[in-house]
Amino acid sequence: MPDTIDRFLPRADIAEDHAITVRAPAALVFEVAEGLELESIPLVRALFRLRAILMGSTAPVAPRAGLAAMTRAIGWGELARTPGRELVCGAVTQPWLADVAFRAVPAERFLEFAEPGLVKIVWTLEAEPRGDAATRFRSRTRALATDDDARRRFARYWRWARFGIVGIRWLLLPAVRREAERRYRARGARGILTPP
Predict the structure, then answer these.
(1) Which domain holds residue 173?
(2) What is the pTM of this model?
């Protein structure tokens, strides 16, 4: 059976896949991932600022909110959700612009969307149970340009921007693990070990 992300972007110009094992129930890990404020991670904050400086961005800073809420606030759409297990978000954009803007496309139109000059991007948060108190937490990102000109522009941008984008994933996963395991230990200390 294909993964949910394949329904929206089965092929891509770039694909990133990052995973980590967390010693906490999947529902708790997913809750932490959705609610984690990326801006609470100092190096992520620095990467956002560095991009703004390098690109000459004048856009306001994204609102401080949990990951899922923040991405919706800046224009991403929810393509699919399995409660407590998976979130798939998507948008179209021109990431090479200084003041990048994201636009949601309805789930039923995302796969076939082909407006020229854009890049379609899909990302996921996935919490796969591996026993009562272990989870494989995964985040995947795929991007596909809608035409050759956008593909060339995106390739030039990706040559340098990938370091920050992948860096954010590398920082996100251990932050989710630390917080989920901390909460799970705290619940155990209070005698509440069942998933939320």
Answers:
(1) 4-187
(2) 0.88
